[in-house]
Amino acid sequence: MDFSQVYLDTFELEDMDPESLARLGLPSTFNLLTDPFPFESSEAPAEGSHELAPFLPSTKLTILEACRLAELGPDDAILDIGCGDGRICAAAIQKHRVRLAVGLDYDQELITYAESCARQCGIAVLPELESKPSSTQAVRFECRDLDSPAAIAYLQQLVRDHGITAVFLFLCSEMEAKPHWRLFLRQFCLEEMGCRIVAMVIDKNDSLGTQPVRTGNGIWVYEQRR
Ligand SMILES: C[S@@+](CC[C@H](N)C(=O)[O-])C[C@H]1O[C@@H](n2cnc3c(N)ncnc32)[C@H](O)[C@@H]1O
């Protein structure tokens, strides 16, 4: 099935009343979408919270635009940091034939749902990351809390071992404020590994401290100038 049929669009979900949403049998995290302004909520993440960004799936239009701006192709392997229901990974494989998509999120319910959606899209779901890069397109979803310096070490290994060429993420001030994220994104991914960084941005002040090479509606693509 085409990814656009498998995933409901964000605004369709946001417009639903909680009862209709419940009838769809989606993971409970989707109930958060009934908050119309999750990013503007006056409530900052609770003390000790590991939330890097609230759950808000990208619209299908944004995903298609982000993949296009990232200039994805069959030689690419992508990583989605905070993958939610896995829609970016699914689109990157289905529409751009990337060889590998890895989606990580700390919400187990979302990860299980992401796997089932990918299967509906006809995409192979890997039970584990293979050490030898696979020649056919596949996705791997993992439940992992990424809010710690130890998690960054895991991400660095993953980028190196699996030849990640593009990293997708929601760039929020919560992340920007953490030096280990800046180092990982800018110094490691962008400068050392030569990855593209595809940042979905809410606030124009969110940046990696360098100029994006391409921009779309709320999408900034960073790439080391060749
Ligand atoms: C704005 S949503 C983006 C979802 C998806 N990438 C998309 O564009 O549709 C942010 C995601 O980050 C996840 N997240 C937040 N904090 C996290 C953490 N500490 N570790 C892993 N995932 C996290 C949330 O569960 C949520 O699914």
Secondary structure layout plus pairing:
Blueprint: H1 3-6, H2 10-14, H3 18-23, H4 60-69, E1 77-81, H5 87-96, E2 100-105, H6 108-120, E3 124-125, E4 138-143, H7 149-161, E5 166-171, H8 173-176, H9 179-192, E6 196-201, E7 214-216, E8 219-222
The structure holds S-adenosylmethionine.
Provide keyphrases for this structure.
226 residues; alpha/beta; Rossmann fold; 2 domains; eight-stranded mixed beta sheet; 9 helices; 35% helix; binds S-adenosylmethionine
Give an overview of the whole structure.
The protein has 226 residues and is α/β, with parallel strands linked by helices. It folds into two domains: 3-34, no CATH class; 60-222, Vaccinia Virus protein VP39 (Rossmann fold, 3-Layer(aba) Sandwich), CATH 3.40.50.150. Helix content is 35%, strand content 17%. The protein has nine helices and eight strands. An eight-stranded mixed beta sheet has the order 3-4-2-1-5-6-8-7, with helices on both faces. α7 packs parallel to α9 (179-192). The longest helix has 14 residues, at 179-192. The N and C termini lie far apart (38 Å). The model has no long low-confidence stretch (mean pLDDT 90). Bound molecules: S-adenosylmethionine (SAM). S-adenosylmethionine is lined by residues 50-53, 55-58, 80, 82-84, 87-88, 105-107, 110, 145-147, 170.
Quaternary structure: single chain
Strand order of the largest sheet: 3-4-2-1-5-6-8-7
DSSP summary, beta strand count: 8
Topology-level CATH name of the largest domain:
Rossmann fold
* Helix-strand topology string: HHHHEHEHEEHEHHEEE
Percent range of helical residues: 25-40%
- The coarse silhouette is globular
Number of helices: 9
Helix/strand structural class = alpha/beta
Average per-residue pLDDT, rounded, comes to 90
Low-confidence stretches: none
In the CATH hierarchy, what is the superfamily of the largest domain? Vaccinia Virus protein VP39
**Cofactors and ligands:** S-adenosylmethionine
First-residue to last-residue Cα separation: 38 Å
> Approximately how much beta-strand content do the residues carry?
15-25%
User: Main β-sheet, in a few words?
Assistant: 8 strands, mixed
Integer-rounded radius of gyration: 17 Å
**Domain tally:** 2
The name of the CATH architecture of the largest domain is: 3-Layer(aba) Sandwich
